[in-house]
Structures are given as C-alpha cells and as structure tokens.
Amino acid sequence: MGVTITLNERLAAQLQSQAAARQMPLEQFAEQILERAIEGCNDDAWVRLNQQRVALINKRMKQPLSPEEKEQLQSLQELADRRLESLDRKRLAEVDEWWRRAEQALGIPGNGEA
User: Fold this and answer.
1) What is the pLDDT of residue 71?
2) What is the DSSP letter of 92?
3) CA distance 44 to 38
C-alpha cells in the first residue's frame, strides 16, 4: 500500500540529506524512520507489560506464585522473547547493511564476490 506524505521544505531537505549521507534511497530511509517511530509508540504498552513481568519474577523469588500468576508470567516471558527476537533480527539486518556499505566503500568484495 502506497502512502504520500507532504513535508515542509526544511524537513524534506533534512530527510533527503540524511538519506544521501547513508547512501540510501530516500523512500527506504523514510520507511526506516517511520518503523522506528511506530515501534516507539508500542513501547509504552511494552513498558507496562514488562513491569508486570518483572514484578512477577521478583515475587517468585520471595514466595510461590499462584497457578494464574505462573501462567501470566509464562505469557509475559514468551512476549518478551518474541520482542527481543524481533529487535535482534532488525539490528542484525542493520549491521549487515552497514557491513556491506563498508566493504563497498573500501572496495572489498563481500558475500562471495570475487
């Protein structure tokens, strides 16, 4: 799905300059920025859930959890695992991209190129 966003001249110039500095197409750079912004919107909900998870872990250290609390903790642990896996995949993809650009800038063949 395509979306068109109108930016003021100053913001458009900054976006274009940053994309060029990273040797990225403008659309790709803008997409990355928006993805990170959206992730930030989800952070508030995650913080609350993670606080619940930590509270249950702390409680478990002091006393046994009820069956309901054990189930809730398990769900929250699984959510934390999925969130971290997602972040790991994104960060590794970013590292791969920077590595590729460094090799390209230095004229080093990468990924099996000879």
Assistant:
1) 94
2) H
3) 11
Place of tokens 């990273």: 22
- Total Cβ atoms within 10 A of residue 76: 19
Q: Could you report the per-residue pLDDT of 56-102, keeping only the tens digit for each?
A: 999 999 999 999 999 999 999 988 888 888 777 888 888 888 888 88
Please state, in angstroms and rounded to a whole number, the distance separating the CA atoms of residues 25 and 95.
18
Q: Supply the Cα-derived Rg of the chain in whole angstroms.
A: 21
Reported as a single tens digit per residue, the pLDDT across 26-55 is: 988 888 888 777 766 667 788 888 999 999
Cβ-Cβ contacts under 8 Å for 112 (sequence gap 6 or more): none
**Rounded distance between C-alpha atoms, residue 79 and residue 63, angstroms:** 23
User: Residue 103 contacts by C-beta under 8 Å, 6 or more apart in sequence?
Assistant: 109, 110
